Amino acid sequence: MRIDVLGAVRAFRDDGSPVDLGGPRHREVLARLVAAEGRMVTTDGLVDDLWTDPPARAVGALRTFVAALRRALEPDRPPRDPPRVLVTEGPGYALRLPREDVDVHRFQDTLARARRNPDAVTDLGTVLADWRGPAYADVTGSPWAQRERTRLEELRLEGAELRARILLDSGEGADLVAELGAHVAEHPWREPAWGLLARALHRAGRQADALATLRRARKMLVDQLGLDPGADLQRLETDILNGSVPPEGARTAWTGHGVRLGPRTTVDLARTLALAGGDALVHSRRDRLAAVQAAESTGDLSLTARIIGAYDVPAIWSRADDPEQSRAVVAAAERTLTALGPDGPADLPARLLATIAVESRSADLSRTELQRAQQAALQAEALARDLADPALLAFALNGVFLQSFTRPGLAAVRDRIGAEILDLATRHELPNFAVLGRLVRLQSASALGDLDAATSHAKAAEQLAATTEAPLVSVLTGWFRARATAARSAESGGPTAATAAAHYRAAEDALQTAGMPGLHRGLFPLALLGLRLLHDRPAPTDPHLDWGPYRPWARPLVLLAQDRVEEARATLAAVPEPPRDHMQEALWCLTARAAVRLGERGIAARAEAALRNARAEHAGAASGMLTLGPVARYLAEAEACAGAG
């Protein structure tokens, strides 16, 4: 089986014969599952993607499309055998095919390989030739498809430029002049493309034409954008004039994805990719730092400040995916802020301060760093309000939200922040921040145990995700629905604990490829522990569970479950104070539970004091992704233990 979406959507059997996929809706369902890259897409999400205003029987129609696709894709499957290609998973569907059998996945994987290894240039040329037109060309009028087309077109252009660069670096490329000339004519704002065309002309012995190309690029950038060419183009012009262009066989230094992009181009690409999730999210973080470093190397403070502040990608989690990189960005922002001083454009300090607040994730900070980040958040908010810039204020409020975990029990405060972000985003058409506002409010309602309100925010976030670069939303809302199932499993007549565990497992599977290790590590074991506590069962003791950053707080309960009481007592005595993040209530509750079980009155009293202001909240539910049950339950136990004797 082979599926192609780089052009019109089509499928072929192993013998090369085409598969009749049916009508436009059938092809769109298949295309949407291809775009999910093996992840489950909920039924509700598919309905919202297929119809702007879903009809009353939309779910039934969707099931009909899926059934027809299954017959087309696996015509010889016996009626009672489960599907192997288009499978049912949790509350939705997923496509199960090897990545090499789907042209868009093959393209992305080959591009990633060529970024790392120039020897893959031949394969890169092959997959670039596979493009038959815009991706998902026959899926018209669908926001999700337009979003994917935009993302993939950016990758296609990057791939074309990377291939040209590799060939030029290896001593070939004189025959690229016509191809690169057409590329530049179609995409005149891509500075790297101008440099590649000039190099190809020079390689073909056309030095005068190469210099004329660079001067044409300079004139266009200055006249139409008010920008001077980036350092790479300026350096190339000087090299050609001096006759010092890299000789054949030499390889220039590569940055970012393997393409020497200027900082403006790089940060714009990184910002776009950050919203796509998965490998794209990982690459975006790397490219963002490359852009910052390239901007700093120019010595232009204003450019550096704008490059640092341009990455206003909404952030929802209080633990960084790459703490070292976040610290590097914060350090660059602080250096630039100090160097700017009181002069310069008024918005730059606000953007730098907001960046410091957003990148300084509270779980990773010392007390001094935390205080500095909280101060930066408040200063950014005040400056943004004075400037009356809605987008800047939304970005600053994102920082305020991430620094709002100063103590347990602040869900209501975060809900007010989320409500303001959502209001700003709705009134001023900031769709990515509208998603953020919904997710903040989902987390806050979850923390307060209001599952109806949280569900409403989850649905609204998923609807917004259909028109924004936000495929990660369904991953987060899938976890919320698992959290809700877990809570209902403790109620009379609710689902079983096994059902809740299966929902958590499905959510975990979806998160594995999302590119968010700061969120992912330890989440699934903590969710299972919370589920067991809801049902008054001992902690899970599977040695293969990766508790990640939550291990110190879970360990005493795991040891108790193994009847290793004295080890549990010693471990509990060494447990640190939880970090000020989404999980602080949960970790204090784990400490309280272990202290109660071991009769450690002093530790129980410390946990009781920390949790007192969170009495109305649910432990772990501030994450919107799991729950240990009401804090009041753990608080009562801790109070009784602390007061005993």
TrEMBL record:
CDD domains for this protein: BTAD (cd15831)
Keywords: DNA-binding, Transcription, Transcription regulation, Two-component regulatory system
Record keyword Disulfide bond present: no
Cited InterPro entries: AfsR-DnrI-RedD_regulator, BTAD, OmpR/PhoB-type_DNA-bd, Sig_transdc_resp-reg_C-effctor, TPR-like_helical_dom_sf, WH-like_DNA-bd_sf
A GO molecular-function descriptor: DNA binding
Domain called OmpR/PhoB-type: residue spans: 1-97
DNA-binding region: 1-97
One example of a Gene Ontology biological process annotation: phosphorelay signal transduction system
Domain of life of the source: Bacteria
Protein family (similarity comment): Belongs to the AfsR/DnrI/RedD regulatory family.
Protein name: AfsR/SARP family transcriptional regulator
Record organism: Actinacidiphila oryziradicis
Lineage: Bacteria, Bacillati, Actinomycetota, Actinomycetes, Kitasatosporales
